[in-house]
Amino acid sequence: MPEFDLLIIGGGPGGYVAAIRAAQRGLHVAVVEKERPGGVCLNWGCIPTKAMLRSAEVFETLSAASQFGVYADNVRFDFAAVRRRKDGIVAELTGGVAGLLKANGVTVIEGHARFTGPTTVEIFDPGPSPVFTDGPRYGAAPAGASTRTVTATDVIVATGSVPALLPVPGADLPGVITSDGAFGVTEVPARLVVIGGSAVGAEWAGLFATFGADVTVVEMQDRLVPLEDKEIGAALGRSFTQRGISVLTGCTVTGIEQSGDALTVEVDGATTRTIQADVVLVGVGRRPNTADLDLKYAGIDTDARGFILVDERLRTTAEHVYAIGDVTGKALLAHVASHQGITAADVIAGHDAGIDYTAIPAATFTHPEIASVGLTEDAARAGGHEVITAKFPFAALGRAKALGDTEGFCKIVAGARHREVLGVHIIGPSASDLIAEGALAISLEATLDELADTIHAHPTLGEIGMEAALTGLGLPIHTAPRSR
Ligand SMILES: Cc1cc2nc3c(=O)[nH]c(=O)nc-3n(C[C@H](O)[C@H](O)[C@H](O)COP(=O)(O)OP(=O)(O)OC[C@H]3O[C@@H](n4cnc5c(N)ncnc54)[C@H](O)[C@@H]3O)c2cc1C
């Protein structure tokens, strides 16, 4: 008789959400976690970065307060206090997750799990944390604790991802860090090179630039945030450049050398150059966190990159074993992990559930902020859609003017024939909140006409979707018509 109905390996936004849903469905559930509850998202991802970015935003706003007729003299920041505020928020939220697991009757087992069979895992003390150096890790088994074996009817793998490594000479030098290591930076570096201009790299670049670092971003593709619509990437590049961040696109880093106290970064592009840095932050993607998991003993297959193969019900190639979150490589986002977790828990509890990845919003918390859902213009055309596009600038919105934040635009990609919304792409204030309307529009298969006909409160930033839809219909109210 198995000890648990369901054992979940990993307590991140995939694992802990699955555990709560499964417990609500009446299952006897355990979560094994080797670090701290909340996973990457709460501890060294979404939440701590957004907490620090908020400090940067406050500093930036106060520094420019005179444009609002407000005078704040001698505006300065204390980076140690910025980090302490972040730590407090993380502690509160991770404590909340631990409390929720307990309140739902979920057993939390501290330690590192590895498969010894499809539904049998061995749990052991993983030793010192590679991530946390500021005290005992949540998941450390008590000193001298012996290995324990746990069985369950079903198992969910929710072990997440870890930073990808940069395969160039010098990538292991002191001062070359990943996004995990960035949380250990105690002073704003004078010169920072960020390798990789996707969401993670762009957020750190913006944060340190606001706090006064001389920042260079090196991106291999022809634009920043290359997964976004090309107009969005181009707009972010222009904005970063105006803010004094050096943006080198179409460039690769070929090596890093120690030169005295500094690091010399060799960059290959249209021309070869070197850049001096005090810190080099590598943000070149993520790889599945399956080290020491012994997937082979469970018969779990992975793709060529090591991500676990799953179907739409999150089933792996091993019977009774499911996988959710980053480790499946579907879309490396916390809300996707959580949604997969809810779906897997429902499937295991015998409910009819499946996951659809059509309307997944994604946000990048740079300034200006970016958010998108659905197809980019290029992806829609490549997928055989005949499309129309509609754009509306924040500068034409009264609310954006009042906020003093007018940079950016909303671009909608719609089918040319039925005007169904295929993609929404926003760069500008509160983009990450505004995108919810786009996600709803796509999941309800709404058209431009329906977006335009929906009454939006005035004056709000939310009017941008309606105004963009009106533009797409050739009926713009607050921008001049294209030509008469
Ligand atoms: C800097 C940064 C910023 C980010 N910002 C955002 C954002 O703004 N929005 C967003 O949606 N996403 C963001 N992400 C991505 C987000 O953090 C991940 O998509 C999300 O955490 C994935 O959740 P998960 O449950 O799959 O895995 P994780 O959160 O990685 O959790 C996995 C857990 O499993 C544990 N574990 C692993 N192996 C074992 C084992 N063998 N035994 C026991 N425990 C194990 C780990 O310790 C970890 O706690 C960010 C990521 C980074 C790095």
From TrEMBL:
GO BP: any one term = 2-oxoglutarate metabolic process
**Primary place of residence?**
cytoplasm
Does the UniProt entry include the keyword Ribosomal protein? no
Where FAD binds, per the record, is at K50, T159, G160, S161, D326
Q: Needs which cofactor?
A: FAD
Q: Which UniProt keywords apply?
A: Cytoplasm, Disulfide bond, FAD, Flavoprotein, NAD, Nucleotide-binding, Oxidoreductase, Redox-active center
Q: List the disulfide bonds.
A: C41-C46
Domain (FAD/NAD(P)-binding): residue spans on this chain? 4-341
UniProt keyword annotation of Cytoplasm present: yes
Any further remarks? The active site is a redox-active disulfide bond.
The entry's protein name is Dihydrolipoyl dehydrogenase
Species source reads Nocardia africana
Q: What is the lineage of its organism?
A: Bacteria, Bacillati, Actinomycetota, Actinomycetes, Mycobacteriales
Q: Which gene encodes it?
A: pdhD
